[in-house]
Write a structure and sequence with these properties.
The complex is a heterodimer. By secondary structure, chain A is α+β, with helices and mostly antiparallel strands. In chain A, strand 5 and strand 6 form a beta hairpin. Chain A has six helices and 13 strands. In chain A, the strands form three sheets. In chain A, strands 1, 4, 5, 6, 7, 8, 9, 12 and 13 form a nine-stranded mixed β-sheet that branches. In chain A, strands 2-11 form a two-stranded antiparallel sheet. Chain A is elongated, with a radius of gyration of 22 Å. Chain B has a ten-stranded mixed β-sheet with strand order 12-11-17-10-18-19-9-20-21-22. Chains A and B meet through helix 6 of A and helix 1 of B.
């Protein structure tokens, strides 16, 4: 379907274009949020015994997003976007199997900026169109950021849908592990859901507590704390170091875990940390983020990428004209 | 026998093709679940894009998403125990390589489509192996060879009689390590299948089997032990699990001339064994087999031809006043003596009938040597007892036991029997239209290198021209690479049992994938890999145990009798001819008689097969003659007698 509408709008006068943003841009996450330690009086390191406990079954939720500019009508880009999310359940046989998967392909553009024929071509193709308001058009950076936000939201919407569906069907001993913020979703209130955050743009501590968090030895976690963010649902959180960071950087193999804001979470934190620490193996290599990417999450990503439309897979190589040989 | 009722419609895999591993018209790759019934040798079907492709799995691969083994070590912190305890099993693949057996439609020939892969059903196996051309129809020519088994499915596999036994192609070669009884068992099973299913429109067929080691083929008429699984396999193949109904055994005598040189000498069975005894006529035609080519030059060759053409079995004047009718080695020896005596008396001339005396002495020496080395098979002066040339019976196995015969005698038996088969088949007067000749130890009889013997030439001749005559060679050997390439190359059907790894490393097996070689090197008893002109790839099949008594079991159930004293052995042979013969009468009759006279009388009685055996034997034996000094030969006074084998340097 995608190939046909791209060809149609180009035939209708949209100038062919090719721009693929870096897939790993992720969400901008550079806020400063206060936090209160709920496990100890001050933040401190606790040793973790990897593998001391693990649930008999666990579900892992992750999503992917890919987008590219396929045409340009004046200053209005035509963006082709694809988002997908899946839950893979791992049972006693240790092999993840897909529980649910959702995918969506859509176009982001400012419809009014397109030639009439191109608009008709889009309508005829049946593809979803997200119409950017005229106010968000302008310099490419600004417009593309706006498109990026729409893609993020679409992916998050799929993830939230799946999280809710998964939690509704979650067995009594099963857990759900969400890649990213738990506090963004309804799962934040569930007793058997955790979020695993790999990026650390948000700063919760300063001074000695920040040093404690960032220089956590391997196989340790911090005390449980409560981020005081008003933009998110209330959760409890702690840092967990999977591998020694010495020789790398302080964020190397550092995870932040989120779970529901409840006293039981404080009691469960040692066991949950032990479980997640054990998930560091097998390594998620060759993914560049292998030091903090849990293998089952990597598995969900691999699964989703295998289902992605071929034309969205970033082509290696430069944008120099092809020589034809 | 082919079940066309149900085919499993659940796909077990999917064809994948990458730039590095593309699908081609002759090969494709597919993946399956990790837990799968697919294995090396499995037949699969790909259905996509209105095209059906059948393939046989030739190789398998398993790998995970692990980029480098070091990642596994790092993840487990160097502890294999910890690695096994990883909470998540790595994503891994079972990737298989399959060789295309058949495509439908066959034209245009295209790369295998990237479709779903199914396990082949009975009907699929028949299609894949192109058996549909000969299993059904008005005149089916299918011979069951075994069951293809994979993933709980089991399908009969058939050979085409036109390509196994001629005239389209012919001959079968079977290789395998010794000691697993696979080669002999496979041939026994296949012979039984041929006898049961050889199509009537192709005429009559018999088999001649040379038993060259132990008791392997000595009990083909006795039922063996089968279990329920064997019987089920027979039923699946549409065959009756029964021993051969008609088996004729032939074995030469031991040197004593009365005890048979075979392991089938148990009193209950020995009565079925016919002595194989040949005289001068039978031997002289194949003197080339017995005489060392380095030793016998053109002059000797010419003299032997002279004897065969001008002397044997006809009135012959020696030129010294004597008339001879040479029919036996003893007659020939008398002729030689007459020649030497005559030459001596005539003035010590060096030539006789243009032949130099040295040549005559050399030939005499070598021929005398034959009757010595092959004593028991070759008789000096008795009548011969041979296979029933011209009276071969349909679906009958003729076993010639030469296991304990001198290698020279084995060569002679082989060469003469095969030559006679060929002669009669050419004349269409053998009694059957086709004969299977089973020869074990082809390494020995048709080696890839070594001297160009008469036997090897004969095997080459059968291999290259036998199919036109109905003379089919079933050859077996341990090392195929050591058999003459024209012998194995002309075998239309090739069967492999468990193979030696060193043998598999030889160039002849380069076409096989490493996985197939490993499977061949570990093949269990009862499983074979078969190549047949209709099959574009080798196929693994299982066959039931032959329904005949194995040689080893046979000698336990029917222990060979100890050699009898001369008189008892003679009695036993006469009783076999006529149960009314009373042993004591025979013993009295032969007491103090010359053993040679008794042997001769026994042979003539056996040849005559009279109503009254004892009377015939008594007549042939003649009356007792008082011992008297031998009378000097007329005209030979002064000539010293020659030893049977002199010390002369010829």
């Amino acid at each position: 379907m995608a190939r046909s509408w791209v060809a149609a709008i180009r035939a209708a006068g949209v100038v062919p274009a090719a721009y693929v943003p870096e897939a790993s841009l992720g969400r901008p996450d550079d806020e400063v949020v206060a936090a209160s330690v709920v496990e100890d009086s001050v933040l401190r390191a606790h040793p973790v015994t990897a593998g001391a406990w693990a649930p008999p079954a666990a579900c892992f939720l992750d999503g992917i997003q890919h987008w590219r500019v396929v045409g340009q009508s004046g200053v209005a880009p035509v963006v082709q976007a694809y988002v997908a999310a899946a839950v893979r359940r791992r049972g006693p046989d240790r092999r993840p199997r897909t529980l649910a998967v959702r995918a969506r392909e859509f176009v982001i553009t400012h419809l009014a900026a397109l030639p009439a024929a191109a608009r008709r071509a889009l309508e005829d193709s049946g593809v979803d169109v997200v119409d950017l308001p005229a106010a968000e058009l302008g310099q490419p950076g600004r417009t593309l950021r706006a498109a990026h936000v729409r893609v993020d939201r679409a992916r998050e919407a799929l993830e939230h849908e799946l999280a809710e569906a998964c939690l509704a069907a979650l067995g009594p001993d099963e857990w759900l592990v969400v890649d990213g913020l738990l506090s963004d979703t309804a799962a934040a209130a569930h007793p058997r859901a955790v979020g695993v955050i790999k990026s650390h743009g948000t700063q919760f501590f300063s001074g000695a507590e920040l040093e404690c968090a960032l220089t956590l030895p391997a196989g340790h976690r911090t005390s449980v704390f409560r981020p005081e963010s008003h933009a998110h649902r209330p959760v409890y959180s702690w840092y967990l170091r999977l591998w020694p960071w010495e020789g790398n950087d302080v964020l190397y193999s550092l995870l932040r875990v989120e779970a529901r804001a409840h006293p039981d979470t404080v009691r469960a934190a040692p066991a949950l940390a032990a479980w997640l620490a054990a998930e560091r193996a097998p390594l998620a290599a060759p993914d560049a983020r292998w030091d903090r990417l849990l293998y089952p999450i990597h598995d969900v990503e691999t699964y989703l990428r295998s289902r992605m439309p071929r034309e969205l897979v970033p082509a290696p190589g430069s944008r120099l004209p092809k020589t034809g040989t | 026998m082919i079940d066309r009722t149900g085919a499993r419609a659940t796909p077990v895999g999917r064809v994948v093709a990458t730039e590095q591993k593309p699908a081609t018209p002759h090969q494709f790759h597919f993946w399956t679940a990790i837990e799968t019934t697919i294995g090396i040798g499995a037949i699969v079907k790909v259905a996509a894009l209105e095209r059906v492709v059948y393939g046989v799995v030739t190789d398998g691969f398993a790998y995970s998403d692990l980029a480098t083994p070091l990642h596994d070590v790092v993840g487990a912190e160097g502890d294999p125990v910890q690695a096994a305890a990883n909470p998540t099993a790595r994503a891994e693949i079972r990737l298989w390589t399959a060789a295309v057996l058949r495509q439908e439609p066959e034209e245009p020939l295209q790369p295998v489509p990237l479709g779903q892969v199914f396990v082949a059903s009975d009907a699929d196996v028949a299609q894949a192996l192109r058996m549909d051309a000969y299993v059904g129809g008005a005149q089916p020519t299918a011979i069951p060879v075994g069951l293809y088994t994979s993933g709980g499915l089991e399908a009969p596999v058939y050979l085409d009689a036109d390509f196994l036994l001629g005239p389209e192609a012919a001959h079968l070669n079977i290789s395998g390590v010794s000691g697993l009884a696979t080669k002999t068992s496979a041939v026994e099973f296949l012979l039984s299948a041929i006898f049961q299913r050889f199509p009537a429109h192709k005429g009559r067929i018999a088999a001649v089997c040379f038993n060259v080691k132990g008791p392997d083929l000595c009990f083909l008429d006795q039922p063996g032990t089968l279990d329920d699984e064997d019987r089920r396999r027979y039923a699946r193949l549409g065959l009756e699990p029964r021993p051969f109904a008609r088996v004729r055994y032939y074995a030469p005598f031991k040197a004593d001339g009365v005890n048979l040189n075979t392991l089938r000498t148990h009193p209950d069975l020995v009565g079925d064994v016919e002595p194989l005894v040949w005289g001068l006529r039978e031997v002289l035609d194949f003197a080339e087999v017995l005489l060392n080519r380095d030793d016998i030059d053109a002059k000797a060759d010419a003299f032997i031809d002279f004897l065969a053409d001008r002397v044997v079995d006809r009135e012959f004047h020696d030129g010294f006043g004597g008339t001879h009718r040479v029919a036996t080695f003893a007659d020939l020896e008398r002729l030689f003596r007459a020649i030497f005596d005559g030459l001596e008396l005539a003035g010590r001339s060096d030539t006789w009938r243009t032949h130099h005396i040295a040549t005559i002495r050399k030939v005499r020496n070598r021929l005398a040597n034959i009757s010595t080395r092959c004593k028991g098979l070759v008789t000096d002066d008795g009548p011969s007892n041979d296979l029933p040339w011209g009276r071969f019976e349909d679906r009958t196995v003729y076993v010639i036991d030469i296991a304990n015969v001198d290698p020279l005698g084995q060569d002679l038996v082989f060469a003469r029997v095969v030559s006679k088969l060929r002669e009669h088949l050419e004349r269409r007067d053998l009694g059957v239209e086709a004969v299977i000749v089973f020869v074990d130890e082809l390494n020995k009889y048709a080696p890839a290198d070594g001297p160009d013997t008469y036997v090897r030439k004969m095997l080459l001749d059968i291999s290259e021209r036998g199919r036109y005559l109905g003379l089919v060679l079933f050859g077996a050997e341990q090392f195929r690479s050591q058999v003459h390439r024209r012998v194995v190359g002309n075998a239309g059907t090739v069967v492999f049992g468990r193979m030696d790894a060193d043998e598999l490393a030889t160039p002849g097996y380069q076409v096989l994938s490493p996985a197939t070689k490993i499977k061949l090197a570990t093949l269990p008893i009862g499983e074979l890999m078969v190549r047949h002109p209709h099959f574009t790839q080798p196929i693994f099949v299982r066959f039931p145990r032959p329904a005949v008594l194995r040689g080893r079991d046979g000698v336990e159930r029917f222990p060979p009798a100890a050699d009898l004293p001369f008189a008892d052995a003679v009695v036993r042979q006469l009783v076999r001819l006529d149960r009314r013969v009373r042993p004591n009468v025979v013993k009295d009759l032969i007491a103090e008689r010359d053993e040679e006279d008794v042997r001769r009388a026994l042979a003539r009685t056996r040849q005559a097969r009279p109503q009254d055996v004892l009377a015939c034997f008594r007549r042939e034996l003649g009356g007792r003659v008082a011992a008297a000094p031998p009378a000097p030969a007329v005209g030979s006074a002064g000539v010293p007698p020659l030893d049977p084998i002199t010390d002369e340097p010829y």
